[in-house]
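Record 1 of the preview.
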Amino acid sequence: MVRRAAGRTRTDLVHDRLRSDILDGHLRPGQRLKFPDLCEQYDASVGVAREALARLAAQGLVRGQSRQGYQVAPLSQDDLSDLTSARVEVESLVLHRSVVEGDVEWEATAIGAHHVLERAHFTAPDDPRRVTDQWADAHAAFHNALLAGCTNRRLMQTAASLRAEAELYRRWSVSLGHEPDRDISAEHRGLLDAAVARDPDLAAERLRQHIAHTAQLLITCADEDATDLR
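->
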């Protein structure tokens, strides 16, 4: 019988631990994920581990290999370029629809998420090149809140999957604050202002620029980063 904790299945718990270990760097891009090791480390059966990995594969954080199991998704500039193009098209469409279709509750949630993001500590005192988990979580919550007004579930799922893949690049790349002339806070404020003003075209355009700018920074700074994107 699957064990549960606070209403969550064992698979949920193993998935969350694996995801955190990938994003926190305990499991490196390209690393093979062997079932015997995973079952021992995460106290899970092969079935639970397999289901958790399947979820992570759907999110783009791991990849299945023919007859070799799974590996943490490797990073490359070509993949990042393709991912960015897809995000620019899909997320801007979802935000456009979100601004048109979102209700007052959606608007309030987006404003609240932005308030939390504004007050999150951006970098850690002991490592100013890296964003904190607090900021990363608040950042993800804000972008998810902006998109949440869209009523098309398939578009929402696609956008969420693409954002999850992009998170691996953000966590393994130089701090987004490494570019001194960029004002990320102003970009987020601009996105919120356009959304609340119910200007879908402006909101979509600002999101396209925001995504493309971030991706270009990651590519430009790849040589400085320990991930050695190639």
